[in-house]
Design goal:
Blueprint (H helix, E strand, L loop, with lengths): L4 H23 L4 E11 L10 H7 L3 E2 L2 E2 L5 E10 L19 E8 L1 E9 L5 H4 L7 E5 L6 E7 L8 E10 L10 E4 L5 E4 L8 H22 L11 E7 L4 H14 L3 E7 L2 H11 L5 E6 L9 E15 L7 E2 L1 H8 L17 E5 L4 H9 L22 E4 L2 H10 L3 E6 L8 E5 L6 H6 L5 E9 L7 H10 L3 H7 L3 E2 L12
Parallel strand pairs: 1-11, 12-13, 12-14, 16-20, 17-18, 17-19
Antiparallel strand pairs: 1-4, 2-3, 4-9, 5-8, 5-10, 6-9, 7-8, 14-21, 15-19, 15-20, 15-21, 15-22
Length: 502
C-alpha cells in the first residue's frame, strides 16, 4: 500500500515535536538548576569610579599572609544560582560526591585564589540554608599553574524560580592577561545543571526545532497546493460521455479531475440512461469521441460495442419513510413488481396502497432490478410519467435516479430503486433478505442487487485517444479513488477475485 507523502511529513513532525517536548519538559526539563556569572571584573582601573572608590580604597591596605594586596591582581565575581525548572530542587537531589556531604556545587577559579565571599539576594528560607554550618566555604587545591580557587556551595533547597547570589573577591595567583573563566560543577537527579544568560534569546535547540517545524509547515503547504499527479498519459481532445444516470455523478467528477491535470481534455455530458447511451454510441458509428457508461453488460443488439469492466456497484430498494419496513425478502420484491402486493398491510406494513416508482424501459438500473431480482418476470404497466400520475395510480415511471429519489420521498406508500451512492436521508433504505449493501456483501455477492459497471466504445479505439486514456484513468489510475468515494469497488482492487463478472 502506498503511503501518502503528506502523511509521512505530518507523522514525522508530530514525532519530532513530541520527542522534543518529552525530553525538554518531562525527562530533563522538570528539574533544572541554572547559574550564570553576572560579573567577573578586575579591580584595576576602577578605583576612580564614584560608587566603588570607598570600597576599593579599603582593599588597598589589608594584608593577606603579611603581604599587602595588589589591586592589579584582584577581581570581583558575582554568580547567580537559580531554579529554572518546574520542580523544586531538594537537598537530596544533589548528587555531587565529595568529602563534605553538605556540599552540592563547586565553583572553580583556575589561577585565582578566593580571598572573600558573601551571599546576597537571599530569598525566603535561604539564609538558614546558606549560613554557618551549611557547608558554604572557600578553599584551594594545587600549586603553580595547576592552582585552583574553589567556592563550595551547600545543598540548598530551591523552590521554583528561587535564587541566590554569591559575591566573591579573588586574587590572581599566577599568569597575566585575561584569567581563565570560572566553572560551576554539580549534578542533580533526573535533571541537569546548566549555564543560563541574564537576557536569554532563543536557545539554539529551540531555534533548530522552530526552524524544523517551519520547514515542515512549508512542505505541507506545498503538498497541499500541488495538483493531483497527472494520469500516466495525458490525452487531449473532446469526449462526450453518455449513458447511466446512476453513475453520472461519479463519472462527471472523474472527468473534471482528469481535466484539471490534462488541460487539453474537454468533456461534455449527456447522461439519459444506459439504453439511451448505448443507442447513441451505435448511432455515432466508429468514433473516438464518445464513451457510454452502462449498468451491467451491454446485452444483445450491441455487437459492435466493446465493453470494459470498471467497478462493482450496488442498487438499493427504497421506500417512503411512512412504510416503516426496514427489510424485504426477494420474494416480496418480486410480488410487489408483479402486482401481487397492492397494499403494505399484506406484508406487515401500514394500511397504505403500494405505489411503484419505476425507471423507464431501457434504464440500466431497471434492467439490473429485472435481471437480478425479478427473474425477468414482472407485470407490464402502461407507460405513465410520475409527473402526470393520476391519483391512486399504482405505478409510474421517471427518467433519472434523481427522479426516483424525489418521487419516493414525496409519495406516501411509494417504493423504488436507485444506486446506493445516491440515497439520501429523505427515503428509507430496505435490506434484502436481511442483507444490506456493503463492500463485503458486494464482493461476496450475497447482496442480490449487485452489478458491474462498464465503459463502452464503438469498436477498438486508439491507445493515445482521450477515450482510451480516460478508461485507463478509471481502471488503473486516480479515477479508482473517485469510484471508491461513491461507494463502489474498482475492478482492479479485487485482483484474485472474480467479482467483476456479469
Amino acid at each position: 500500500m502506498e503511503i501518502p507523502v503528506e502523511l509521512i511529513v505530518s507523522v514525522t513532525g508530530l514525532a519530532v515535536a513530541s520527542a522534543a517536548f518529552v525530553r525538554e519538559f518531562i525527562l530533563v526539563g522538570r528539574r533544572r538548576l541554572g547559574y550564570r556569572f553576572q560579573m567577573d571584573t578586575p579591580v584595576t582601573g576602577e578605583t576612580d569610579t564614584a560608587s566603588l572608590v570607598g570600597a576599593l580604597a579599603n582593599l588597598s591596605t589589608p594584608e593577606v599572609g603579611g603581604a599587602p594586596l595588589e589591586l592589579s591582581k584582584l577581581s570581583v565575581v558575582l554568580v547567580r544560582v537559580e531554579n529554572g525548572g518546574t520542580l523544586a530542587v531538594d537537598p537530596d537531589d544533589y548528587t555531587m560526591s565529595g568529602t563534605d556531604p553538605r556540599v552540592g556545587l563547586h565553583i572553580n577559579f583556575p589561577g585565582r585564589e578566593v580571598i572573600g565571599l558573601a551571599v546576597t539576594e537571599l530569598d525566603g528560607p535561604l539564609p538558614d540554608n546558606l549560613g554557618p554550618g551549611s557547608g558554604i566555604g572557600k578553599r584551594s587545591r594545587g600549586e603553580g599553574e595547576s592552582f585552583v580557587g574553589i567556592i563550595d556551595l551547600p545543598k540548598v533547597q530551591l523552590e521554583r524560580r528561587q535564587h541566590y547570589k554569591i559575591l566573591a573577591v579573588l586574587k590572581r595567583v599566577h599568569g597575566d592577561g585575561e584569567p581563565a573563566e570560572p566553572v560551576l560543577t554539580g549534578r542533580v537527579k533526573r535533571g541537569r545543571v546548566v549555564e543560563t544568560r541574564s537576557q536569554p534569546g532563543p536557545s539554539k535547540k529551540l531555534m533548530a526545532l522552530s526552524g524544523f517545524l517551519v520547514a515542515l509547515i512549508a512542505v505541507q503547504a506545498v503538498l497541499a497546493l500541488r495538483t493531483d499527479p497527472p494520469p500516466r498519459d495525458c490525452a487531449g481532445g473532446e469526449l462526450t460521455l453518455v449513458g447511466s444516470t446512476a453513475m453520472a455523478p461519479m463519472i462527471r467528477k472523474a472527468a473534471q479531475n482528469y481535466a484539471k491535470t490534462c488541460t487539453e481534455a474537454k468533456f461534455t455530458f449527456d447522461f439519459a440512461g444506459t439504453s439511451d447511451g448505448l443507442v447513441k454510441l451505435v448511432q455515432a458509428g466508429p468514433t473516438q469521441g464518445m464513451l457510454a457508461i452502462s449498468d451491467g453488460p451491454k446485452g444483445s443488439g450491441f455487437d459492435k460495442l466493446v465493453e470494459y469492466p470498471l467497478a462493482l456497484s450496488s442498487f438499493s430498494i427504497v421506500t417512503h419513510p411512512g412504510v416503516g419496513l426496514p427489510n424485504l425478502t426477494t420474494s416480496q420484491v418480486r410480488d410487489l413488481y408483479r402486482g401481487n402486493i397492492k397494499n403494505w398491510n399484506q406484508i406487515g406494513g401500514p394500511d397504505q396502497p403500494v405505489v411503484l416508482i419505476d425507471r423507464e424501459a431501457g434504464s440500466g438500473t431497471r434492467t439490473a432490478l429485472e435481471n437480478r431480482l425479478l427473474e425477468g418476470n414482472r407485470k407490464v404497466f402502461p407507460y405513465i410519467p410520475c409527473a402526470g400520475r393520476p391519483s391512486g395510480g399504482e405505478q409510474c415511471e421517471v427518467k433519472t435516479t434523481g427522479g426516483v429519489a424525489s418521487f419516493v420521498a414525496e409519495t406516501p406508500g411509494a417504493v423504488g430503486y436507485m444506486d446506493t451512492s445516491s440515497v439520501s436521508g429523505a427515503v428509507t433504505v430496505v435490506s434484502l433478505d436481511g442483507v444490506g449493501a456493503s463492500e463485503d456483501t458486494m464482493k461476496a455477492r450475497t447482496y442480490p442487487l449487485t452489478v458491474v459497471e462498464y465503459a463502452d466504445t464503438h469498436g477498438q479505439v486508439a491507445g493515445d485517444s482521450l477515450s482510451a486514456q480516460f478508461i485507463d484513468y478509471l481502471m488503473h489510475g486516480q479515477g479508482r479513488a473517485i469510484i471508491r468515494e461513491f461507494g463502489n469497488i474498482p475492478c482492479l482492487d479485487a485482483v484474485g477475485q472474480a467479482i467483476c463478472t456479469p
